Amino acid sequence: MSSIQTFCEYFFTYGGYKDYLYGLSNTALIAVFGLLIGFVIGCLIATVKIFPTKNPFIVVLETIADGYVALFRGTPIVVQLLLLHFGLFPLLGIDLDAVVEAIIIFGLNSGAYMSEILRGGINAVDAGQMEAGRSLGFGFGETMLRIILPQAIKNILPTLGNEFIALLKETSVVSFIAVIDVTRSLQSIADSTYEYFVPYIVLAITYLVIVLVITYFIRIMERRLSKNER
Amino acid sequence: MSDNVILSVKNLYKKFGKLEVLKGIDIDIKKGDVVAVIGPSGCGKSTFLRCLNRLETPTAGEILFEGNYIFKNERIYLKQRLKSFVLPKNADDATKTEYENLKAEYAALRKEEKAIEKYLQKHLDLHRQKIGMVFQQFNLFPHLTVLQNVTLAPIRLKKLSQEDAQAQAQRLLKLVGLEDKANVYPSTLSGGQKQRIAIVRALAMSPDVMLFDEPTSALDPEMVGEVLKVITDLAKDGMTMVVVTHEMGFAKEVANRVIFMSEGVIKEENEPKAFFANPKDERLKEFLSKVL
Q: Are B156 and A132 inside 8 Å of each other by CB?
């Protein structure tokens, strides 16, 4: 019992909850904005890769995209954080808030995975849909936006949910670049009190609850998007 | 060229890799024509139709739609001639001039055709708006309601107001007897209903010509009639159309021209009575004996 008391005392009386909430907000910021950036990058790359042309400009873009995906899928996120935060950003003279840096890096990382998810989703839409759109007079881009992507996103929503959950959990390593996230906040409580079990149980429950909430919302979205399957 | 030619196809070739599917198609389609294209499967009927609105890019030839090029590539022949032109070292002046002329001719043609291609990059979609297409597999947009399927293109491309587009859609849906299906999703419809909606979707852009790619081949037999009736009504209203079909009855009754394609070329063309009563081409005789 005493370990719970120690934790509660530290958490409530000595203001540990402030760190916890601050860490939680950082975790949420990095996960949500990382996902958004990842989604935008993923859409761009998937479109570039699917664009049917021999235009040299697009071909160059495709090559860059391939390199980017290989790089960010081929190295661990921790390495990317360290390399960009301590290596590339100082070299380029970029001085950002560590949280913003984390958002960018997680966005870049997630974009690499998202592009492949989206590409798969787009390829899974029947080719006749593109033909029907083009035959009505829509350009490639507008057909993509109004006809292909809505169907593709519906198909990949469960996978996107997976990606979001994975991203959220991966943010637990941001303390490598001195960002205080929810993991770091509870870690410092553990370090200060020399009581490890309770803080880490609280940490585990925190992640679990967030993931369950996300799962719930994804289910709702899926149900709404599949209304045309009745 | 007379004004009432809507689609003019000259010397059209299409290769898929080494497989030559179309080997020189020539045809003029005039306003009000109802052209039925028949032939054994794999003979290039569908490819031909899909070339007409550039869903498939031909390899060589010309396609004019309402007097505008929507495809032109003749330089490929000159290029071949240039390549096979062996200029001897001690060639006389006449040969040299011939070679230079050929080169100049090729350069000029290349310039012209590149200009057309560039123009088409921007304007092909505008021409496509006037070429309606109906597919074998319907290709309705499953994430949109029937009404949205029909009004999407008019609202976005012809800048019709929502109300106008919906009124037009309702009128067209009534025409095909599906006015009560406006607000359902395509997945709830039968094949025949889907195809009628697909026809309405194409009609909503008020096209000048309609292309039908085996519109009844994916339907249950009892639904073929309802779709053919819609197409027949359209033909009677004077819509210009090219119909790739296996329905010989339709070709006989509704079309004013019937075309038999085989091995990538048009083997025979005639008005329907003579076409079916008095076929000349051997391959067509064989084909008709099997399908009639």
A: no
